[in-house]
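Observation: inputs received (chain + S-adenosylmethionine).
Thought: call the complex predictor directly.
Action: predict_structure
Action Input:
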Amino acid sequence: MPADDAKDQESPRADYTGVHEPQYRRIAAGEQPGWSSPEEVAGMLAQIDWALGLPGAPSAGRLLELGSGDGCLTERLAARPDWRVSGIDIVPLAIELAQKRLDAAGVRAELAAGEVTALPWPDHTFDLVVDSHCLHCIVNADRAACLGEVRRVLRPGGLLIVITMCGDPAYRQGGEFDPATRNLVRGGIAGRHFGTVESILSELAAAGFAVKQHRIWPARHELENDDLVAVAVA
Ligand SMILES: C[S@@+](CC[C@H](N)C(=O)[O-])C[C@H]1O[C@@H](n2cnc3c(N)ncnc32)[C@H](O)[C@@H]1O
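Observation:
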C-alpha cells in the first residue's frame, strides 16, 4: 500500500492545521494575546538555558524552533546575538502573526510555513533545534518522521532540546485518552500525544539521538501536565 494511503488509514488521524488554526484566529481577532503567556515563555527560556549550560552544548550558530507559532518564544530567541534563528509552523496565519511580532520587537528570524515532518532545509544546517511544545502535537508515525527530519537538519554533534508534555493527560478538553496510542482524541482526530518519559526517550534513541540529560519541568497549573525536558545529541 502506498505510504500516503497507509497514512490516511491511520486511526485516529491527524489534522494539525485544523487543530491549531482556530487558536491563531482568536489571537488575530485580539481575543487573546498569544499562544504562550510571558510566564510560560520565561519558563521555556529557563529550560533552554539549563540545557545550553550542559558541557559540550553549542553557544552560538543556527537555531531552529519547531512549531514556532505566533513567535512568543521566537522573539526572545531572536533577540540573542549569538544565534541566527529560524522557525517553522504548519499554520500560515501563525507565521504572519509571528512576523508581525518580530517586526514590532525589531528582531529578525527566518520563518517558514511548513511541516515538521518535511523540514525545508538541507542536511546539517543547524547547531541547535528547540521543540517548544510542538512534538506533543505530533501523532502516530509522524513522530518518528519528525525526529528523523530533525536529526537530518542538525549537524553531527548538534543538540536537540525537547520540551514536551508527558504522563497521562491532566485535562481532556472533551477528548478521550487512548492508552494504546497515548493520543488524546476528539471527534476522531488525534490532537495531542502524551508519551511517558520512557516512551519519549525511546523515540529519541530510535531516531539515532544520544540523550545526554533529561529532567521534569513540573506542571505550573492543576490542569496542565509535567513537561519532559530532554537534551539529545545528533
Ligand atoms: C502548542 S503550540 C506552541 C507554539 C509555540 N512554540 C509557543 O510555545 O508559543 C504548537 C505549535 O506547533 C504547530 N504545529 C503542529 N503540528 C505541526 C506540524 N505538523 N508541522 C509544523 N508545525 C506544527 C502548531 O501550529 C502550533 O503553532
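Thought: report the result.
Final Answer: Residues 16-233 form a domain with the Rossmann fold fold (CATH 3.40.50.150). Residues 16, 20, 35-36, 67-69, 72-73, 88-91, 94, 115-117, 132-134, 137-138 surround S-adenosylmethionine (CB under 6 Å).
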